[in-house]
Amino acid sequence: MTPEFTGKLGGEGGYWLLRGQGAAPAALLVAAAGFLGCASDSTAPPAVGPPTQVGYSAQPSDAAAGAPMGAVRVQIRDANGNLVTSAADQVMLAMGTNPGGATLSGTLGVTAVNGEAVFDNVSIDQTGTGYTLVASAPSLTSSTSGPFDIVQPTITISPANLDSLVGAGATIPYDALATDPTNNQSFITSFAWMSDTPAVATIDPAMGVLTVVGNGTTTLTATTSSGASATTTFRSATLAATQILSFAFTIPIRVINVTWDGNFYYLSNGGSAGSGQIQQVDATGAVQQTTAINMDMRGMFYRPADGLFYAKNFGTDWFTVDPSTGNFTQVLTGIFNQIQTKPDISADGSTIYEHDNGTVRMLDFTTGAETGTITGLQFGSFPGQHVVQTDGDHLLTMDENGTIYTYDLQGRLVTSFVLPVGVVAQSIWSLSFANGMLWVSDTGGGMGTLFAYQLTQQ
Fold it and tell me: How many other β-carbons are positioned within 10 Å of the β-carbon of residue 263?
């Protein structure tokens, strides 16, 4: 009887139905796989032997010096190269070919998990072409990686090319960032900082904190241990006075201050209570109104915060003033140290500055209470020790030679410059800052010319 295959029950790896000719049907289920020489549909998993070697499942990749390279994966394998998932050996990673004389850093010993050790924080600190790594484990054959390259990182510095009016002794923190050009990822590394002109600024070599010393320009350099570097410039700027306008004035005794309310300039004088005067002047210098005031003023100042005018007398008191009538009202009593001082108001209206012999007192505008002092300001002969003005960011004093000393609001000398028009000692009384300009008269008397200067960085 010749058997006949009549059909397959089930899918791959199922059974065949046979029928014998001329006989009653006989259903015989036989395994298809291997029956009468039929090929098997399935493949038996390979047998895994004991661990004999290590090998890379992820090779080291190109990276920047000092940057962590991509994860290096090392497997524990048998003699046929099969992964031994039960292995938990300690795998070590070391430098192989070392063209740059570099140091390999990171976690260099990792215990395998499921037969694989992952090194995800290794780095090389010097550039070079054709580096290799060697992976090893006790009693196993080691493996050398394929070659890879270490390149210089890209360095950026911030702030970049700073040009600033800052006082001597001021500090500015700098930061440098290293980026791996092979993957555009930034990474943490250390830098050595240097300033090429210490007379302008010094910089902490490890921390990157700059300290201003004087005016001028210096180049700052940040360098990694691999020699990658970047530079930026820092300029401690100076100021120069450019004359914008001028106009002649005539006022009793001497002009003591110029202030601006957004529409007109107001000139106030000083020297005698019986000759007190306020002049409202337009932008061309034409007098629009003259008002008598029974006060020997040491300046009248417009305060934008409340739209009022304030004045200090030849005394220690503080007043509100109506420049259209000459009426005044005392608002604070005895807040000033010196009867001669000519104060000024901060840009935000919160502080009154009083200068007395190189010390500036800061007074709360509302209460007159002293909130701080700044010492060490330079000044000239009388009345230089009593006069201070502010441009909002700086304090300004003056000497009889027309030298303007500029300090930041912490009292650090930023720069000094000489006015282009000659002055006399009594001109110091007229030192004012109004409408964004510095004002000074050329005389100490009641007739002369007021010059307005734009202060610009140089």
Answer: 9
Q: 37-68 in b/e burial notation, b at 16+ Cβ within 10 A?
A: eeeeeeeeeeeeeebebbbbeebbebbbbbbb
Best CA proximity match to 408, nearest among 203, 199, 170: 170
Rounded Cα gap, residues 352 and 329, in angstroms: 18
d(CA 364, CA 348): 12
Distance CA(454)–CA(435), nearest Å, equals 10
Tell me the per-residue pLDDT of 188-213, one tens digit each, with 9 for 90 and over: 999 999 999 999 999 999 999 999 99
pLDDT in tens, 300-341: 999 999 999 999 999 999 999 999 999 999 999 999 999 999
Q: Do residues 344 and 299 make contact, with C-beta atoms less than 8 angstroms apart?
A: yes
Exposed/middle/buried for 326, CB within 10 Å: 0-12, 13-18, 19+? middle
Joined tokens for residue 310: 């304030």
User: What does the block give as tokens for 397?
Assistant: 């004093």
The C-alpha torsion from 345 through 346 and 351 to 353, rounded to 10°, is -60
Q: The tokens of 56 are what?
A: 């890379």
The token pair at 127 is 């550039």
Candidates 382, 380, 395; CA nearest to 343 is 395
d(Cα 247, Cα 6) in Å, to the nearest integer? Answer: 122
DSSP state of 342: B
DSSP state of 226: T
Q: Which residues pair with 287 in a beta bridge?
A: 281
Q: What is the CA radius of gyration of the chain?
A: 43
Which of 362, 345, 357, 360 lies closest to 384, judged by CA? 357
The DSSP secondary-structure symbol of 113 reads B
Nearest CA among 97, 114, 107 for reference residue 72: 107
Judge whether 39 and 75 are in contact, CB under 8 Å.
no
Q: State both tokens at 347.
A: 């840009």
| Residue 37: CA count within 13 A, CB half-sphere | 0
CB within 8 Å of 37: residues ≥ 6 apart: none
Phi-psi region of 371 (alpha: psi -120 to 50; beta: other; left: phi over 0): alpha
Q: In this model, does residue 39 exceed pLDDT 70?
A: no
- CB distance 323 to 292 below 8 Å: no
Query: What is the pTM (predicted TM-score) of this model?
Result: 0.70
